[in-house]
Amino acid sequence: MSDRIILNEVGLRDGLQNQATIVSTEDKLKLLELLEQAGLTHLEIASFVHPKVVPQMADAEAVVSGVDLSSRRYSGLIPNLRGYERAKLTGLREFGLIMSASSTFSERNVKMSLDQARATCDEVVDAIKADGGHSRVYISCACACPYEGKIDEDFVVGLAADILEKGANEVSISDTIGAGTPLQIANLTAPLIQQYGAERVNLHVHDTRGQALGMVWSAYLQGVRNFDASIGGLGGCPFAPGASGNVATEDLVYMFNQSGITTGVDFEALERAVAFAEAVTGSVLGGKSMQWLRRKST
Amino acid sequence: MSDRIILNEVGLRDGLQNQATIVSTEDKLKLLELLEQAGLTHLEIASFVHPKVVPQMADAEAVVSGVDLSSRRYSGLIPNLRGYERAKLTGLREFGLIMSASSTFSERNVKMSLDQARATCDEVVDAIKADGGHSRVYISCACACPYEGKIDEDFVVGLAADILEKGANEVSISDTIGAGTPLQIANLTAPLIQQYGAERVNLHVHDTRGQALGMVWSAYLQGVRNFDASIGGLGGCPFAPGASGNVATEDLVYMFNQSGITTGVDFEALERAVAFAEAVTGSVLGGKSMQWLRRKST
User: Which ipTM did the prediction report?
Assistant: First the structure.
């Protein structure tokens, strides 16, 4: 098993779509440049959800047309077949899809039962496969749901396995509300890694209750090598800075780099990206490792 | 091996001694009561360092005389034999001593070479042993030193083993500056746990770079069951709230309780202690799990 970590930077999508401020296409591309200069090679850069639903991502086509698609592994989020058709026209070849592990969440959020959502997911995965693209299915609420509480672990593992069997390239175990624990993440990822290998399993965690890095380390010990992260922890509620965003890219990078585990990302170079993200969103950002770096530098 | 976690609450000592505000004896005892009501049974409540050096702890005798020593496992920090003599008069039977793993840090902080500090430590441990008391030796800068950088792991393990061999009841692997990683903590604790058992090894981490819970979980996987923690993350610089304090008691409690690992501590009851600590120190406190609980409750 390779020890190299693949960090998928989701700040431009999962991060910015949760900010009150709408960031311009130009500024998104500048942020992207800073992230790439720091060494990030896998980046989710747009969402093809309808602009009325997520106005922060209305410029998806413009963002994608602003990058050299062959230079990095870029991906975009797609909600359904219509979103995929839109995304495909941009030349993107990697796509994120979201399934929920909770039926209540699915019904309230996307107005579909789990079965309906699953049928949509399979349909889009098939289309991507037919076109030779790469699909990653996020299993959101994998640890807990705001309405149902803890989700049965066997159910989540079974759902993920089934999605992989049906042809998705990857699944992402997603603790969307940051309610999981290191133990739970080990239980969810270990069987998938053993059966399908590290290339097909990603972990996506939020730091809502401070458990994110513990969950990342726990997953690493089970063999997980693909992790989503968001620069500065971008993605939380703008009214509670840093409180409920994605796990901060810099905190992951610090942990792995200091452990001698290769990420290919330069920790200190991430500071420019955090500062720029703060400037364009008007938010106070930065994982604790970045706060420390800043105190050290002043 | 027991799965039960022993949390040693250090907010009243390591926490409050780093606050600019001097908290009254009465308020310390009220905070202690709230912590005990939440289920904490092991508490470091005072320091017998000279009051000129740490004025926040000048009321050590008064604090100890305010508790029923037979009701909980109370401990006090002692710098040397003189401090021990002072502490012993209060009736305390458990004592923390600090050794550094870094010679530069030792020379700058306590004006002793490592050999001199070690001699002092052995002398105090012997005295405690002769009186039938319990000693815990903190090996500070166990991961890194602000002057020397990373400390050799074998050196730290060897030092800890030697201190245990000489008769200390416990050692505490202390990442005083929060510079360690989960991997490093595993390397430091695993050989000690294997050789001396879980009862004799404690972990003390700060969350300076966001790595604390990852380090705690990593140590747990190696068999560590004794952890220091500080209510609300108390202990950091008062000018950067929450940034560099001890790992927050509530974040540990959340992680273990949610994992079905017994702490004996009621997570929600800790909120009253955090709120009270905030009121008496004038600081914004609270680990991320507490920030989450508060948002949920409003």
Answer: 0.91
